[in-house]
């Protein structure tokens, strides 16, 4: 299959898992740009990728699937938070919102659940 150096030069090593793969997607290729791969990596993972760094610019299908799942999860969480904040604001405007923090009873007992 060739040396590790040859894999890096020919683009068969995934930037995320560093494993060799026959099929990879170029992060800055047409499809990689369309899928915003570099932006997603930079946002969701504790690494940064750029066109000028010396590391591989390819990602394998498994890592791409995991990155897309992370993106969908974060989008869903952000949408839910936005919706819940809007519902809370609407209840506050109507005067029907009562915060648990306003009661003097103290925190709920969660040990009996």
TrEMBL record:
Keywords on record:
Metal-binding, Zinc, Zinc-finger
Annotated positions binding Zn(2+): 14, 17, 60, 63
Q: Which GO terms describe its molecular function?
A: zinc ion binding
List each copy of the ZAD domain by range. 12-87
List the PROSITE patterns hit by this protein, alphabetically: ZAD
Q: Which domain of life is it from?
A: Eukaryota
What's in the GO CC field?
A: nucleus
Q: What is this protein called?
A: ZAD domain-containing protein
User: Which organism does this sequence originate in?
Assistant: Leptidea sinapis
